[in-house]
Write a sequence for this structure.
């Protein structure tokens, strides 16, 4: 399904060595490499140079859209399209606002939440039905760095040499998965 | 135990003078007020009194819920919260003047007014002087007991390192949380809600609680950042801990708005004359603008200012927002209390600020002296190590 990618993968025996290796790889000028680990490692975001996620912005503007939608929709239904006085409350927007706020609030939450989940799916290219398997042990006991061929000035030999020079216990070329 | 060099904190000479000058300003304002503004000054006194009692109780509340949740990150700053609760014994003495001024504050203490008002007569079995005094005694007795237990156990652990003291404190904390929920609600009803004895709101207790915790967190953030900046917390507390405090501040900014609005909407919707009087008094003569300002300074500005992750990790930024929150908390108490004295028009809160400076001076002085006398972190707490490696 996804575009086929080849690259070079290097293995390390524990997370401290991997974190160190990631910092060295970043310092060596690689920018598109990724770490593959059985559990999250503190400091890995900075070490691999991952920028903070864009999802908060989607949430924020999703929420604003929801609030605007909630405000106009409640006003339109109760004061424009089908004017109905309930409990003697006023109908103009400003004075009737307290009654609209719960719905505005709910719409804000709904839009913010759904747009965040949608953005997460899109940015992570989910759903992935055929994820590549580099090594089955990467989900339980192994730690790896992966340099894809999308890296600028990519050369498999150079990447392999780099991994060996910073002490990878094992280096493999993976291609066309 | 992780390795860190515990720095001793000593209150600077300048800070001491500043605190004593603040106390003096408060006392002079109050005495002058007794002479020139003998009615209004009691409302000003009540603002300062309620503000600082709430901060002190906030410290006790924070200490106890962190014990109950067995929180690791908050262990070092828990000592600051414990320092805050040391204000409670002073608050007992500050209650005594309030009892003398109570006749000027509470209509229900005027027996003639009660006799001519059927609604007040029906409430007299609860709102009467004797029971009022008993309740205050009971509340302060309970608060002092739990403050004494929780803080002295924590200080004892600094010496002995006995882990059983932590287990003991969890039990006291569970009991205190229940006591706190009931007593602080009733305390708010007694000293604030009954200023307008016809009025009632089922959400009043949780509204004042929102303010208590909001302002407490702001004060906690100020103390934490102060101790980081002067090097006392070097190697112990860093921006990760401030990040967590700021997250709390952000959450309770929303909580305040949620509770404030819920209280308003229930009253707006039901439209009962005894209930709406509260908001009618705060919707005319300039009070409307104050009500709207409260929405901006206590909710919208802190909400937007603390939303980004980087904002919550910047010590300088968090300090500024904390100062704004404390100022907005004053505005909130001013808005709650002052219209009961005069709802015709808004006046500049000069006397109120003067008295509040005195209360805050005493509060900060007490807290800083506590931190000078004791370790600034619970050094032998079993969960301290977790806090040293805290990372968010």
């Amino acid at each position: 399904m996804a575009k086929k990618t080849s690259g070079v993968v290097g293995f390390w025996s524990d997370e401290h060595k991997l974190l160190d290796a990631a910092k060295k790889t970043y310092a060596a000028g690689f920018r598109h490499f990724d770490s593959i680990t059985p559990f999250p490692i503190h400091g890995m975001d900075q070490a691999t140079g991952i920028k903070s996620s864009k999802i908060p912005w989607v949430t924020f503007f999703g929420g604003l859209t929801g609030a605007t939608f909630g405000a106009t929709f409640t006003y339109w239904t109760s004061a424009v399209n089908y004017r109905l006085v309930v409990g003697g409350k006023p109908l103009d927007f400003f004075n009737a606002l307290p009654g609209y706020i719960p719905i505005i609030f709910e719409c804000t939450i709904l839009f913010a939440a759904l747009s965040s989940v949608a953005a997460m799916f899109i940015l992570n290219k989910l759903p992935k039905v055929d994820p590549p398997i580099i090594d089955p042990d990467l989900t339980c006991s192994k730690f790896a760095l992966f340099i894809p061929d999308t890296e600028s000035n990519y050369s498999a030999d150079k990447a392999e040499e780099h991994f060996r020079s910073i002490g990878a216990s094992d280096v493999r070329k993976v291609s066309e998965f | 135990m992780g390795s860190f060099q515990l720095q001793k904190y000593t209150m600077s000479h300048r800070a001491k003078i500043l605190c004593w000058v603040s106390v003096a300003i408060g006392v002079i304002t109050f005495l002058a007020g007794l002479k020139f503004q003998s009615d209004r000054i009691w409302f000003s006194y009540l603002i300062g009194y309620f503000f600082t009692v709430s901060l002190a109780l906030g410290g006790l509340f924070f200490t106890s819920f962190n014990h109950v949740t067995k929180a690791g990150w908050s262990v070092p700053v828990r000592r600051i919260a414990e320092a805050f609760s040391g204000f409670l014994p002073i608050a007992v003495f500050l209650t005594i003047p309030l009892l003398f001024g109570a006749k000027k504050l509470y209509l229900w203490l005027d027996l003639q007014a009660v006799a001519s008002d059927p609604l007040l007569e029906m409430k007299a079995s609860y709102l009467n002087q004797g029971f009022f005094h008993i309740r205050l005694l009971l509340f302060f007795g309970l608060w002092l007991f739990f403050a004494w237990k929780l803080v002295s156990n924590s200080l004892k652990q600094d010496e002995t390192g006995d882990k059983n003291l932590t287990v003991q404190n969890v039990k006291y904390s569970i009991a205190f949380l229940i006591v706190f929920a009931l007593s602080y609600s009733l305390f708010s009803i007694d000293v604030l809600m009954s200023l307008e004895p016809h009025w009632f709101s089922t959400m009043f207790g949780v509204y004042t609680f929102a303010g208590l915790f909001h302002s407490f967190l702001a004060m906690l953030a100020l103390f934490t950042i102060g101790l980081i900046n002067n090097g006392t917390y070097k190697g112990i507390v860093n921006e990760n801990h401030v990040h967590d405090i700021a997250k709390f501040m952000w959450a309770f900014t929303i909580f305040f708005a949620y509770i404030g609005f819920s209280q308003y909407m229930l009253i707006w919707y039901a439209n009962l004359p005894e209930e709406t009087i509260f908001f009618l008094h705060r919707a005319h003569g300039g009070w409307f603008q104050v009500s709207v300002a409260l929405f901006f300074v206590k909710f919208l500005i802190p909400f937007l200012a603390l939303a980004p992750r980087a904002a919550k990790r910047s010590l300088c930024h968090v300090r500024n927002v904390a100062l704004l929150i404390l100022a907005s908390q004053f505005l909130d108490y001013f808005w709650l209390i002052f219209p009961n004295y005069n709802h015709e028009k808004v006046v500049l809160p000069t006397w109120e600020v003067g008295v509040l400076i005195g209360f805050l001076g005493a509060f900060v002085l007490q807290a800083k002296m506590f931190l000078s006398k004791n370790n600034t972190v619970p050094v032998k707490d079993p969960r301290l190590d977790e806090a040293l490696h805290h990372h968010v």
